[in-house]
Amino acid sequence: MDMVRDILDKQVIDREQVKIGKVDGLVAELRPGKPPRIVAIELGSIALARRLGARPGGWMAKLSARLGGKRHGEPHRIAWNKVREIGIDIEFDIDVRETTIFDWQNWLRDHLVGRIPGAG
Questions:
Q1: pLDDT digit string, tens, across residues 29-52
Q2: Structural domain tally of the chain?
Q3: pTM metric for this prediction
Q4: Helix (H) or strand (E) holding 62
């Protein structure tokens, strides 16, 4: 399997079939004398910005931490051992409601969209 071609940019879904986002990065463990092993995927704007280089990734991490607090200064990671199935989408054995992945969307819904007349 060509991990970059077959995994990067695929849709990620949780165990309830909720679309979480797309794979924006891969985290590999380097092992002496053995091939690298994928240990996690990364999602979100920080991981996506890192694909453009260290400087854009650093800017996005600082902006995210400034807007959302220190815990949002890193990309969202999902452990590779949580993979249930790889097909058109990648299904993980997680419940997105138990993560911080949708924090920004929830904040926008509660503080901005919810205040627009007729949007509720």
A1: 999 999 999 999 999 888 888 889
A2: 1
A3: 0.77
A4: helix 54-68
